[in-house]
Amino acid sequence: MTAIIKQFSRPVIEGAGLQPATPSRRQLLVLLCVSVPSFMINLDANIVAVSLPSIGRTLNADFAATEWVISAYTLAFASLLLPAGALADRFGRKRLLLVGLALFTAASILCGERPRLSCSMRDGRFRAPVRRCC
Fold first, then answer.
1. I want to staple 66 with a disulfide (CB 3.0 to 4.6 A). Which of 25, 38, 56, 60 is the partner?
2. 3-state secondary structure the chain
């Protein structure tokens, strides 16, 4: 019995000469390729959550009605996961990831520019550049 206790009380690696593992460049790129989209998804979800009060004020909606905004966002996001996986199998994960990140970034920029674009459209800047925007 004491031999078993002595065997398990020793450290597992006793001077085996092992060096601490340093990550390779490929491992760091994989970490980056996983971390950036995850960060963007969390950032997008937080942006939707932060914008809920102004969405509610704009639509004159109470809290229960603004909860539907989160539900619709989550439903749309979840319903696109399976088709995105099938497209990734068909066209390649890397290509689809890059296309998705580019589309997400472009859509975010357009949403950020929306007040200026709607002002431009209202003043007719896209039809005929006659007037200045507010």
1. 56
2. CHHHHHHHHCCCCCCCCCCCCCCCHHHHHHHHHHHHHHHHHHHHHHHHHHHHHHHHHHHCCCHHHHHHHHHHHHHHHHHCHHHHHHHHHHHCHHHHHHHHHHHHHHHHHHHHCHHHHHHHHHCCCCCCCCCCCC
